[in-house]
């Protein structure tokens, strides 16, 4: 049977591929920017890394590009007023094809055939986006070929280069390398290129890892056969991963590239023995037991001690300084376990600390906010711990997790009640929401499973004789499913009200650790290192290794030359990478005894397809000379159609860039042209950051502002220069080389869907039953099988949402008999149940849509370019709330036009200030606002309801602005205080009885009823201003516009703060009278002086001359004697 499956895999699967030759793949490495004026300052092909850890260690922008930018006098670059910087690194792309010589020939062939790679760089937004608003950002970078130096021919070794951008606030980046589509087909590859903040610079200028000592020879410490261990990190936000569990050593494996480059370090911590009666230790071990990686810090547990190290991430807005050594957390606590939380919540990261010894049963929650660590003990409102709530002394906390759904944080606690007097051993799930709530009771024995459905825990179900043992749990916030594992696997979709047991798992194995992909799949490893796999919504779990399919897969890999020596490697861990692909980290030893850590892809779908072949019956047809495997999948193929543009739903902002145009036969770049590429891209990022300001124009996107000084007049001129190769530098900057495509030309399924209030997302999916020839060939083989295969009447699609209180899914079925196709239209609609309004991209609630073809689980496989994939289930992540990329902007152009039209005059600001519009006090103020979608480029007038409040201000200067307290904001803006003469502004020409008012007394405005009259009543901040000059006073108002609580058409809180400069503010009667009296006094003094001069002019003239001579004589005497004299009358 095994040999038959191996043969069939060649016939129906991928086998050895297209041919037995070596396949090529893209490789990515980092390269320091070097000196752009030095042609030899490039990366070296033999050196795979130019950094110590493989990640980005420098976080400061480079000034080396300035020297090149200054020479671009005849280019569309503003060298006079703009300042250009560069990024610290390049990305170098190579083509690896086995041997070095084969790789060199493949690179030259790719250059000659035009197969230059493109890099799609994804910038992960930070946990707490303070520098920029929440956004999803991607850049498509065209690479530039550059020869390696030294070289005396165009056939020398070369590589492709692109700038490696860094964005203030982001430390996690993903580079996806794509082929251009010409020449040899090279599959796309994805790499993690993250910032490593755990590297320090010595006094001599050398770099070293600050967390410990690097061990160059892995075989000196690591051994084969060590138990695997879990990898814990905040999903999508941890730039550096560490893996503990090196037996006998306080060492960890560290990587900043998802184990593409891995290094071993011995940590610089003290191995103290703190065992006592309150914290007993049965055995001392130097091994690091647990490790958890967050965005800015690393946490480890050794014995009962918990340690922390804060990285040096200058790109993050950290509130604490970077660590120089490991610091101990909770010194007085006996720590028995550290439990990770894999998702951040409202700008914070979390994990749990479990007490041991005399503190058994205690539980603490650790919160990291901008690097600041806060630890809180979890107690109910009566101050009781979880065990005290259960009134059990023989009690311990096994695990903890949190549910962040519904914009509310809830703690989940798994307790183990130890046997005692008259009390049996049991488990209990508690939900802490100010008070502890009990979950349903766990059964004492594991229930007997069914064939295809989940086994629900009831009082009447049939049980096995195996006692239930639990050891951990994890909550998936995207699907709302809680997984609990031990010697079985169960889940709960309602936070412990009911429990469902998975089927297919053996009863003689205990799960050691459990890993979620958060995209519908999960994997767990048992104590005997067996690897199991399952899907959300599918009751059956499958053993991947060992299995028949694994044997076939291993044999095929051995024939290809991969994984040939299975006895010389052992498993370290398994994890899901950025692309949700299952990876295993392996420690292997070569024939020379040298150890290394490698990452291998685990193609679960391919392995399961071989398992599927082992259970299929091969049928031979006598009518025709062929044999076939009968179809067990209900459909032949599927296709998704009627998709909208993905940008409207995935909310990804996209930039497309390419290097300068060079005038060489093979388009080979120079170090100067690459430096120009660096400088222009960094300048684009600066403009992108400024584009998120609150005062904006819909048409003035970053690309427009990048060339605004040239775009009106010189566009055709620079195009002519570039087309004809006229340049003093040997290359030309193309204005068309930088673009911001709002809607892509290729329609694809979005990776995530973001929905606003009552928004919908719809598409169609078609399932084909196969052609008549195909059905006639399978008619005989299908006689003994289920009739549901390839029958239109048996293809049914179900749609499930993770929480129907927030989402509604509907499907419409139609039949196309002429095409033997069943077509479904799927529509997902938001129910409008999101609590309140939030800022764009903040506080989103995550859900999932599951589309399932009935009877397709583990039966449908599809061959794609990336390999074999499971078919029949489609999961769509859905986020509801205010989608990222939407904002409210102050439309200054329309405001000035409307204000001039209402007042019949145009007011010119006497002292213009950048980004601060000014208006006259006597003029009506008619503001206009825009809703801008910076992802799709669309904008429209904002006519919905909103409140207008002055929340701060200062007289005469922006530097004098102070923000008012909440009580002062009410006093200066609310109608409830209108009788106290404290209002700053008021509506013009409106009936106060008909105007809408909030509970606080704030007036509600809209796009048509928003004419404002400045009041500045006597007791307001601008109502009693002193004179500082002959011009009327001016005041700077900080105005907040918000639709929160007044606009029910959206989940977005379009909060906007702008500064307005108002001139010509009148003074009160007291200041007017004082100014009048002062003026009269000055006039009287002048008249009196003139009169006195007329009467006693000659005498006063003689007196003044005598005073002048005396002053002059005193000055000469002081100069001659060099003695300081007292000042005389003349002074």
From TrEMBL:
<dbReference type="Pfam" id="PF15064">
    <property type="entry name" value="CATSPERG_beta-prop"/>
</dbReference>
<feature type="domain" description="CATSPERG Ig-like">
    <location>
        <begin position="749"/>
        <end position="879"/>
    </location>
</feature>
<keyword id="KW-0812">Transmembrane</keyword>
<dbReference type="InterPro" id="IPR053873">
    <property type="entry name" value="CATSPERG_C"/>
</dbReference>
<dbReference type="Pfam" id="PF22846">
    <property type="entry name" value="CATSPERG_C"/>
</dbReference>
<dbReference type="Pfam" id="PF22840">
    <property type="entry name" value="CATSPERG_NTD"/>
</dbReference>
<feature type="domain" description="CATSPERG beta-propeller">
    <location>
        <begin position="202"/>
        <end position="643"/>
    </location>
</feature>
<dbReference type="InterPro" id="IPR053871">
    <property type="entry name" value="CATSPERG_beta-prop"/>
</dbReference>
<feature type="transmembrane region" description="Helical">
    <location>
        <begin position="1076"/>
        <end position="1096"/>
    </location>
</feature>
<keyword id="KW-0472">Membrane</keyword>
<protein>
    <recommendedName>
        <fullName>Cation channel sperm-associated protein subunit gamma</fullName>
    </recommendedName>
</protein>
<dbReference type="InterPro" id="IPR053872">
    <property type="entry name" value="CATSPERG_N"/>
</dbReference>
<feature type="signal peptide">
    <location>
        <begin position="1"/>
        <end position="17"/>
    </location>
</feature>
<dbReference type="InterPro" id="IPR028246">
    <property type="entry name" value="CATSPERG"/>
</dbReference>
<keyword id="KW-0732">Signal</keyword>
<dbReference type="InterPro" id="IPR053874">
    <property type="entry name" value="CATSPERG_Ig-like"/>
</dbReference>
<dbReference type="Pfam" id="PF22851">
    <property type="entry name" value="CATSPERG_Ig-like"/>
</dbReference>
<feature type="domain" description="CATSPERG N-terminal">
    <location>
        <begin position="57"/>
        <end position="194"/>
    </location>
</feature>
<keyword id="KW-1133">Transmembrane helix</keyword>
<feature type="domain" description="CATSPERG C-terminal">
    <location>
        <begin position="906"/>
        <end position="1098"/>
    </location>
</feature>
């Amino acid at each position: 049977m095994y040999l038959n499956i191996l043969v069939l895999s060649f016939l129906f699967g991928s086998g050895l591929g297209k041919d037995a030759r070596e396949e090529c793949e893209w490789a990515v490495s980092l390269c320091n920017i070097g000196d752009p004026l030095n042609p030899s300052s490039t990366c070296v092909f033999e050196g795979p890394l130019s950094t110590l850890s493989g990640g980005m260690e420098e976080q400061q922008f480079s000034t080396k590009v300035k020297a090149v930018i200054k020479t671009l006098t005849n280019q569309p670059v503003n060298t006079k007023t703009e300042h250009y910087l560069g990024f610290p690194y390049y990305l170098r792309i190579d083509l690896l094809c086995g041997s070095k010589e084969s790789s060199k020939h493949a690179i030259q062939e790719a250059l000659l055939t035009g197969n230059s790679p493109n890099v799609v760089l994804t910038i992960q937004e930070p946990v707490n986006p303070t520098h920029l608003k929440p956004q999803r950002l991607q850049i498509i970078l065209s690479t530039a070929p550059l020869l390696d130096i030294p070289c005396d021919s165009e056939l020398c070794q070369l590589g492709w280069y692109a700038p490696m951008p860094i964005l203030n606030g982001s430390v996690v980046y993903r580079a996806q390398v794509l082929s251009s589509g010409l020449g040899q087909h090279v599959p796309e590859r994805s790499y993690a290129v993250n910032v490593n903040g755990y590297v320090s610079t010595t006094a001599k200028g050398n770099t070293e890892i600050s967390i410990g000592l690097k061990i160059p020879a892995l075989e000196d410490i690591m051994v084969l056969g060590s138990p695997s261990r879990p990898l814990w990190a905040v999903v999508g936000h941890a730039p550096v991963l560490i893996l503990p569990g090196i037996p006998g050593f306080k060492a960890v494996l560290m990587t900043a590239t998802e184990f593409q480059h891995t290094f071993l370090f011995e940590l610089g911590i003290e191995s103290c023995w703190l065992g006592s009666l309150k914290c007993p230790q049965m055995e001392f071990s130097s091994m690091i037991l647990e490790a958890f990686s967050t965005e800015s810090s690393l946490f480890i547990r050794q014995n009962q001690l918990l340690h922390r190290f804060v990285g040096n991430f200058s790109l993050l807005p950290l509130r604490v300084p970077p660590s120089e050594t490991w610091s101990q957390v909770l010194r007085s606590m006996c720590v028995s376990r550290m439990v990770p939380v894999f998702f951040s919540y409202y700008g914070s990261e979390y994990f749990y600390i479990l007490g041991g010894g005399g503190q058994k049963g205690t539980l603490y929650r650790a919160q990291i906010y901008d690097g600041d660590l806060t630890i809180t003990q979890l107690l109910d409102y009566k101050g009781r711990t979880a065990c005290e709530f259960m009134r059990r002394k023989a009690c311990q906390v096994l695990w903890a997790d949190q549910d962040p759904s519904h914009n509310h944080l809830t703690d989940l606690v798994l307790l183990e009640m130890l046997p005692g007097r008259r009390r049996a051993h049991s488990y209990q799930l508690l939900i802490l929401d100010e008070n502890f709530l009990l979950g349903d009771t766990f059964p004492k024995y594991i229930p007997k499973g069914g064939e295809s459905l989940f086994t629900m825990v009831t009082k009447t179900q049939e049980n096995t004789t195996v006692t239930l043992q639990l050891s951990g749990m994890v909550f998936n916030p995207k699907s709302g499913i809680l997984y609990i594992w031990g010697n079985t696997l169960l889940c709960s979709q309602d936070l412990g009200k009911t429990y469902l047991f998975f089927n297919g798992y053996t009863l003689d194995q205990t799960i050691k650790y459990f890993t979620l992909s958060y995209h519908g799949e999960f994997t767990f490893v048992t104590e005997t290192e067996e690897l199991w796999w399952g899907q959300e919504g599918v009751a059956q779990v499958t053993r991947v290794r060992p299995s028949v399919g694994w044997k076939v897969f291993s044999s095929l890999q051995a024939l290809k030359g991969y994984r040939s020596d299975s006895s010389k490697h052992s498993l370290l861990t398994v994890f899901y990478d950025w692309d949700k692909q299952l990876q295993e980290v392996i420690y292997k030893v070569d024939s020379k005894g040298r150890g290394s850590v490698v990452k291998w892809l685990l193609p679960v779908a391919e392995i399961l397809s071989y398992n599927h072949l082992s259970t299929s019956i091969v049928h031979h047809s006598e009518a025709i000379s062929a044999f076939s495997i009968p179809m067990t999948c209900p459909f032949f193929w599927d296709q998704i159609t009627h998709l909208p543009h993905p940008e409207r739903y995935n909310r990804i902002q996209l930039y497309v860039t390419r290097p300068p145009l060079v005038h060489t036969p093979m388009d080979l770049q120079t170090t100067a042209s690459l430096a120009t590429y660096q400088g222009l891209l960094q300048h684009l990022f600066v403009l992108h950051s400024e584009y998120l300001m609150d005062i904006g124009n819909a048409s003035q996107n970053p690309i427009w502002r990048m060339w605004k000084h040239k775009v009106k007049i010189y566009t055709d001129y620079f195009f002519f220069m570039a087309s004809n190769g006229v340049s003093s530098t040997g290359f030309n900057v193309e204005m068309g080389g930088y673009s911001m495509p709002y809607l892509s030309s290729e329609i694809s399924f979005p990776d995530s869907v973001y929905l606003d209030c009552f928004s919908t997302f719809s598409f169609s999916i078609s399932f084909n039953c196969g052609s008549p020839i195909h059905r006639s060939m399978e008619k005989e083989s299908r006689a003994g099988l289920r009739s549901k295969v390839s029958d239109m009447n048996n293809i049914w699609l179900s749609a499930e949402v993770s929480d129907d209180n927030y989402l509604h899914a509907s499907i419409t079925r139609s039949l196309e008999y002429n095409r033997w196709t069943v077509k479904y239209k799927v529509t997902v609609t938001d129910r409008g149940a999101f609590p309140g309004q939030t800022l764009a991209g903040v506080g989103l609630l995550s859900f999932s849509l599951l589309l399932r073809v009935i009877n397709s689980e583990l039966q449908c496989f599809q061959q794609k370019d990336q390999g074999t994939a499971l078919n029949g289930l489609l999961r769509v992540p859905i986020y509801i709330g205010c989608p990222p990329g939407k904002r409210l902007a102050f439309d200054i152009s329309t405001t000035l036009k409307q204000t001039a039209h209402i007042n019949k005059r145009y007011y010119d600001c006497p002292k213009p200030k950048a980004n601060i519009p000014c208006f006259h006090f006597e003029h009506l103020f008619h503001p206009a606002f825009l809703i801008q979608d910076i992802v799709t480029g669309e904008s429209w007038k904002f006519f919905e309801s909103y409140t207008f409040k002055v929340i701060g201000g200062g007289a005469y200067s922006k530097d004098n602005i102070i923000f008012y307290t909440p009580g002062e904001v009410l006093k200066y803006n609310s109608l409830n205080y209108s009788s106290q003469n404290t209002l700053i502004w008021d509506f013009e020409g409106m009936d106060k009885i008909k105007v809408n008012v909030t509970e606080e007394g704030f007036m509600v405005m809209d796009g048509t009823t928003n004419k404002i009259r400045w009041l500045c009543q006597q007791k307001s901040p601008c109502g009693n201003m002193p004179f500082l000059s002959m011009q009327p006073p001016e005041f700077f108002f900080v105005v907040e516009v918000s639709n929160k609580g007044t606009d029910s058409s959206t989940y977005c809180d379009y909060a906007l703060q702008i500064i307005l400069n108002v001139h010509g503010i009148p003074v009160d009667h007291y200041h007017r009278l004082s100014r009048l009296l002062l003026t009269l006094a000055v006039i009287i003094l002048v008249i009196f002086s003139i009169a006195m001069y007329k009467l006693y002019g000659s005498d006063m003239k003689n007196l003044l001359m005598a005073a002048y001579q005396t002053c002059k004589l005193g000055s000469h005497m002081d100069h001659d004697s060099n003695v300081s004299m007292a000042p005389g009358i003349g002074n």
